[in-house]
Design a protein that fits this description.
- There is one protein chain.
- The chain has 303 residues and is an alpha/beta fold.
- Helices cover 34% and strands 15% of the residues.
- The chain is built from eleven helices and ten strands.
- Helix 8 links the parallel strand 6 and strand 7.
Length: 303
């Protein structure tokens, strides 16, 4: 009897927790982060936003990944990467770029019109994005465009978080630094290049997005010493194919074939990769068996 009451109480708590955690501000427009990798990295809040929405904008891949949650919804695909040239005067662009910019503007305006018409009809719209939508997400421009609608952002698990988990390292724990720099490719016009950031020798995490692997390694070598630990995380968040390759700036190029790297890979640089708060036991003649444990605890691995 006591056990049965405990089970009922537990079930009631679960039900209450679902209601409490799933509540979110009401809005006609949601920008929803659905996490990286496997679909189980989506949050309860993101699921609730999807449930509340009438119309979903997402990629073909996300439509397939979250088919169970999207059942019965109007799903619209084909409007990804509309951020390029947003807010810019097309006539001021180089002539060679103008045709592409105009084509993107036309598609973007079509999307904007669709969203506003849907909201005017009383529909709720949700835009789904992988990872966290405000960490190198392609939909951040929507928050400016639809500011009058007071859109709600649902944060998601970033591939950065998934990469940290894959490494099983405290990314803010290092012998001399406590900061983490998140960066990406050296886009034209940006002054915070990989080379300029590396002068601080803080932990750096690079969102590569198909950018040139060799370029990153050469730029990092400008200020980081050759023995600096490096890790490549491939397919962060995918339990079935996630992979970590560890080395140093001097060795990593020999360990990695850039052609084998997927879109979903991160570069981690910093002493945190080999830092241990607990010093390894000293090996003595009286305890030669300690050699194996010291080696296992300090070696750089590939897994």
């Amino acid at each position: 009897m006591k056990r049965a009451l405990m089970i009922v109480a537990w079930m009631c708590w679960i039900g209450w927790s679902w209601i409490a955690f799933a509540e979110l501000p009401r809005s006609p427009l949601y920008l929803v982060g659905v996490g990286p990798g496997d679909p189980d990295l989506i949050t309860l809040r993101a699921i609730e936003a999807i449930r509340h929405a009438d119309i979903i904008y997402c990629t073909d891949g996300l439509e397939k990944k979250f088919a169970d949650y999207l059942a019965g919804k109007q799903v619209i695909t084909g409007y990804w990467r509309l951020f390029e040239y947003y807010g810019q005067d097309i006539n001021s662009l180089p002539e060679a770029e103008q045709p592409r910019a105009r084509a993107l503007a036309e598609k973007r305006n079509d999307f904007i019109s669709q969203v506003r018409q849907a909201v005017a009809r009383g529909k709720v719209v949700a835009i789904l994005d992988s990872g966290d939508p405000l960490i190198y997400g392609p939909w951040a421009w929507c928050l400016e465009e639809f500011a009058d609608l007071k859109p709600v952002v649902v944060p998601g698990v970033s591939c950065f978080n998934a990469g940290n988990a894959a490494l099983r390292r405290g990314v803010t724990n290092a012998p001399k630094t406590k900061s983490v720099i998140l960066t990406a490719n050296d886009w034209p016009g940006k002054t915070d290049t990989v080379e300029s950031l590396s002068v601080h020798r803080a932990t750096m995490v690079i969102f590569t997005m198909r950018a040139e692997f060799d370029y990153f390694i050469e730029k990092l070598k400008t200020h980081y010493p050759p023995e600096t630990p490096v890790a490549i995380v491939k397919y962060a968040g995918y339990q079935g194919k996630e992979e970590v390759i560890e080395g140093t700036l001097a060795t990593i190029r020999e360990q990695v074939d850039p052609k084998s790297l997927p879109f979903e890979y991160l570069i981690y640089v910093g002493d945190f990769l080999t830092y241990r708060q607990k010093a390894p036991a000293r090996v003595s003649a009286a305890n030669p068996s300690a050699v194996g444990s010291v080696s296992a605890g300090t070696s750089v691995s590939t897994r």
